[in-house]
Write a structure and sequence with these properties.
Arc Repressor Mutant, subunit A, four-stranded antiparallel β-sheet, 10 helices
C-alpha cells in the first residue's frame, strides 16, 4: 500500500483533534484505493461498511429529497472523513457517496472499527464528534445557501468551486451544479444564462469561466 499522507489527514479539524495514539490505531486498519470518476463508494440504503476519508480528489454525499431530485448534502475534499453516521448507529446509509472526478480514498472496514472500539471505547466519542461536525456543516449549508434566492446560491457555489480549483474556471456538468444548489437543471440553465448575459460568466461545454469575479462576489452577497 502506498504511504498515507498523514499530514493532510491531520490538518482536518476533526482528525487532528483525535489523540495521536487513537489516530495511529485507526490508520493501522486502513486500506487505500484509487477510484474513477462517478464511482459509488456506497449508496442509499446500503448497510454500514465503516469509515472513509478522501486523500485526493473529491467525494460528494448526495441525497434524494424527492423522486428524480438530487441534493448535494456535503462535498468532501482532501483530508476529510465521512461515513460515521451508519458506523455509529448501524443503520443504512442515508445518502450516496460518489467520487467527483478521479479520487484516492482511505477506508476502515466496519468490523475492523468495531474491534478497535471494543478495545478503545473512546473511539465512539471521536466519531460522535465527527457526526456533530457534519450536522453543523449541513445546517450551515442549508442556512447560508439553500435558504437564499437561486442567483445567490449559484454565485456562492460557483465562487467556492473556482477558489478551490485555483483558477478562473471549473469543469462542471449542469446536473452537478443543480444538485449542489437544490434546483432542476432547467431552472439552473436559466440562472446561468442570466449570469452570462450580465457578463459575469462565460459558458462552454461542461465548463464555466468567471469573467467578472467582483460581479460574482456581489451576486453572492444577495
Amino acid at each position: 500500500m502506498a504511504p498515507i499522507d498523514t499530514g493532510r489527514l491531520e490538518a482536518d479539524a476533526w482528525f487532528g483533534a483525535v489523540p495521536a495514539a487513537r489516530r495511529t490505531l485507526l490508520l493501522a486498519q486502513a486500506s487505500v484505493r484509487t477510484v474513477a470518476a462517478g464511482t459509488r463508494l456506497y449508496g442509499v440504503g446500503d448497510p454500514p461498511d465503516g469509515l472513509w476519508a478522501v486523500l485526493d480528489g473529491q467525494v460528494r454525499l448526495i441525497g434524494y429529497p424527492a423522486v428524480g431530485a438530487e441534493l448535494v448534502v456535503l462535498m468532501m475534499g482532501p483530508g476529510t472523513w465521512f461515513g460515521e453516521l451508519s458506523t455509529l448507529d448501524a443503520g443504512p446509509r442515508p445518502h450516496d457517496a460518489i467520487a467527483f472526478g478521479a479520487a484516492r480514498v482511505l477506508h476502515i472496514g466496519i468490523e475492523a472499527f468495531r474491534r478497535l472500539a471494543a478495545a478503545t471505547p473512546e473511539l465512539w466519542w471521536d466519531i460522535a464528534l465527527l457526526a456533530c461536525a457534519h450536522q453543523r456543516a449541513s445546517l450551515a449549508f442549508m442556512m447560508n445557501t439553500l435558504s437564499q434566492p437561486i442567483p445567490v446560491r449559484l454565485a456562492r457555489t460557483l465562487g467556492g468551486m473556482v477558489r478551490a480549483a485555483g483558477g478562473d474556471s471549473v469543469a462542471l456538468r449542469q446536473e452537478d451544479i443543480a444538485a449542489m444548489i437544490g434546483v432542476s437543471r432547467q431552472t439552473l440553465n436559466k440562472a446561468l444564462k442570466a449570469m452570462e448575459r450580465e457578463g459575469v460568466i462565460a459558458l462552454a461545454y461542461a465548463r464555466i469561466r468567471v469573467v467578472d469575479a467582483e460581479g460574482l462576489r456581489r451576486l453572492g452577497k444577495g
